[in-house]
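name: query_chain
kind: protein
chains: 1
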Amino acid sequence: MPGTDTTHLADGLRDAIRSSDVVLSKYNALPRLLSVDNFNNGLHGWVELGGNYNGRGDLESMDRHFRDFRPPQLSNASFFDVGTHGGMSGTYSMKLATRAHRGHTATAIRRLTMSGRGLLQIEAHLAWKTEANLSGTEEEANTYGDITWDANSHPSEAQFGAFTVATDLCTDGVRYHNVMRFVNTDWDGHLVQRWAYPVVPEPTPHERHVGRHDYEYAADFTAPNPDDWRFVDTERVETCYNEVPTKINWHYLRFLIDTETRTNVELQFNNQTIDLRDVPVPPYAEKYESLENLLNFYFSVRTLSGVRNFLFLDSVVISADW
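structure:
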């Protein structure tokens, strides 16, 4: 009918369609869906984050700490005791797996571009685990860091370092990263379990090329100096690691940012929502060429114990309101 406001009708139809979809019904996406990545049917463009190599494709020309991030893989999450665990809604999830080397990081990045400005959001159902230990004496295997096995708490929980969700964005010549990291432990295996963010931009291959840094293998590529990290708050985040390294419980994660103001907005982790509007997003001081409208998201997992750490992602949804 002429003059009828169809906004509410359109919103209702969109909600009805999404609520009937087995993947989308698990999420709280913004109006415009940019990607819906169900890893039960492929990696959907998520790849290893690699460094910048020279004109002849020489991989040795990349930064040392960028050379070995390991590619993501499709995994049916098989374990020695339960067999195939599978994903949250199907057989496969995307798995990031570190090497058994202290400080090593595994990454997966999704590369898009922006067609507008405004709210931008990434959501995922994820789980994190360490590799099960099947060797060593009982005394050696039953204690790590803060945790001694008591048939409830398991030392493997203290062997998991951290996982990160972050962006790499560029608007109007200004490049910046929105970063949230779940810090599970410190280097000594003491439980931290708090959200953290860096107060400096991520060091780039260009900066290394012009002599500003040269980080070693397994350095923290997001912000190598531990003094450049801050905790969002002082409260410990309660999680469901669930006792042993072969039980997977999926956690909901939602990270909302604003590309119009280049700011963080909020983070939701299961039933907890954290206001991030006061969390700074440090930009690069100089302009980076060939990156206008860059829209990248990445996940990473880092081991501090030297035990292989795993991050499983059942599915990921990226959405916007432009």
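note: Residues 7-19 form the longest helix (13 residues).
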